[in-house]
Each structure stands twice: as structure tokens, then as C-alpha cells.
Specification:
alpha/beta; 8 helices; 7 strands; binds S-adenosylmethionine; tRNA_(Gua-N-7)_MeTrfase_Trmb; tRNA_methyltr_TrmB_bact; methyltransferase; tRNA processing
Length: 219
């Protein structure tokens, strides 16, 4: 993603009412922020926020949080969120690697990974958001019945993610290399990147994986 740096972006993000300040203080008590016990869903690497601004309206019974580390990109997501009436949508301006500092063990119901940066070079594999050192963090913060939903256009990243998920004990419940030709497309909300790739006729890879501690899951 090409980003035009904005001198006031940091200040604007810091002061925006939808950006949670000092999120570590809410560790273990996110329900107090939303004022209810509804499921907590995170989109990691939210980008410009297209998915969340629709998801929060389509699914008001969920508390949605977008995590994004680049302030200029987050500003665009915040602008989009301002166009919605959603009271169930917040954002975190931080790196995903800090997830377990901000969420308590078993606090999160679902994690969405949408078109994560593929980092194709082997020496950059640790930066992929499905590298096992990230998955171990997700494993901690997810509930025993929690799950990860992933979409990507990138076959090597998809293969890598399947391998890493299995290596860390997750169970793959659904998987397809062509979402739009599969039954899983029902209720799908396209992200910004997804729209770009589908317009070019590229197939979208999708998977849903269950937490290792969900003893009810079957292959
Ligand atoms: C390729 S874009 C995809 C954006 C959006 N999810 C979509 O599908 O349209 C990936 C986004 O993830 C963010 N990102 C990548 N690594 C991150 C990390 N470690 N922590 C937080 N955000 C991250 C990038 O800044 C970028 O905005």
C-alpha cells in the first residue's frame, strides 16, 4: 500500500473518539468499554476499514475492533467509520504483536485476517501475520471456541498459513481456493483489497480455523 505521510495524522488518530487510548488498561474488561457482554471480534491489519464499516452495521450484536499500525491508513478507516451509526466499533492504533498486552487470555471470540501483507521473502517470514509466533498470541487471547477467519489472494501465503495453523494445533474447519465459487461466500463482506483482486478476476482463498482448545471440533 502506497502511503502519503500526513504531518498531523498521529495527533488526529490519538484524539479520535473511536480510537481506544491506553488499551492495556482494558485488558480483561473490554465489556466495560462497550457496556455489554457481546462477542468480541478483531480485524487485524484493518487497512482503510471497508469491511468493518459494513460488518458493524450488519452484525450489531458483535463488538468490533480494528487493529492498524499505520496512522495515515487508520485515519481513512476512521473517516469511513464516521459515516456509520455504529456504537459497536472501535480501533486500536498499534502493532498486532502487542495483542496479548491488550487482551486477556480467552477474551476474544474471533480474529479476521484479511489480505495480510504476504512478505514473500523467506527471511521476512516472521513478519507474516500467520507466522506461528503471531498464532501463539492469537491462541492465548482467543476463547476455547474462538476462531480465525482468513482471506487472501496470495497462494503461497495461504499455503504457509495452513501449515502454520496446523503446526500450532488449530483445526481447519473450512477452506477453499475460490471463495466466490464456494458455499462459504454467503454473507461475505468484501474488503477493499478483495474488491480490487476480484475485479481483476483473481480467485480469493478463504479458511476458517478453530482454536486448539475447542474439544468439540472435528475434522
Ligand atoms: C494489504 S493491507 C489489507 C487491508 C485490508 N485488511 C483489506 O483487506 O483491504 C494490510 C494492512 O495490514 C496492516 N498491518 C500489517 N502488519 C501489521 C501489524 N503487524 N500490525 C498492525 N497492522 C499491520 C498494514 O498497515 C495494512 O494496512
Amino acid at each position: 500500500m502506497r502511503i502519503r505521510r500526513k504531518p498531523h495524522a498521529k495527533k488526529m488518530v490519538r484524539e479520535h473518539p473511536r480510537v481506544v487510548k491506553e488499551p492495556e488498561q482494558l485488558r480483561g474488561k473490554w465489556h466495560t468499554l462497550f457496556g455489554n457482554d457481546r462477542p468480541l471480534h478483531l480485524e487485524l491489519g484493518t487497512g482503510k476499514g471497508q469491511f468493518l464499516s459494513r460488518a458493524c452495521q450488519d452484525t450489531p450484536g458483535v463488538n468490533w475492533i480494528g487493529v492498524e499500525r499505520i496512522e495515515e491508513v487508520l485515519l481513512l478507516a476512521l473517516k469511513k467509520a464516521e459515516e456509520t451509526p455504529c456504537v459497536n466499533l472501535r480501533f486500536l492504533w498499534m502493532d498486532v504483536s502487542r495483542l496479548d498486552e491488550v487482551f486477556e487470555e480467552g477474551e476474544v471470540d474471533r480474529i479476521y485476517l484479511h489480505f495480510s501483507d504476504p512478505w514473500p521473502k523467506k527471511r521476512h517470514a516472521r513478519r507474516r501475520l500467520t507466522h506461528r509466533h503471531f498464532l501463539d498470541r492469537y491462541k492465548k487471547v482467543l476463547k476455547p471456541k474462538g476462531e480465525i477467519l482468513l482471506k487472501t489472494d496470495n497462494s503461497p501465503l495461504f499455503d504457509f498459513s495452513l501449515e502454520e495453523l496446523e503446526a500450532t494445533g488449530f483445526t481447519i474447519m473450512e477452506s477453499t481456493r475460490d471463495l466466490y465459487q464456494s458455499p462459504y461466500v454467503r454473507g461475505n463482506i468484501p474488503t477493499e483489497y478483495e474488491q480490487k483482486f476480484t475485479a481483476r478476476g483473481m480467485p480469493i482463498h478463504y479458511l476458517r480455523a478453530k482454536h486448539p482448545r475447542d474439544f468439540s471440533s472435528t475434522r
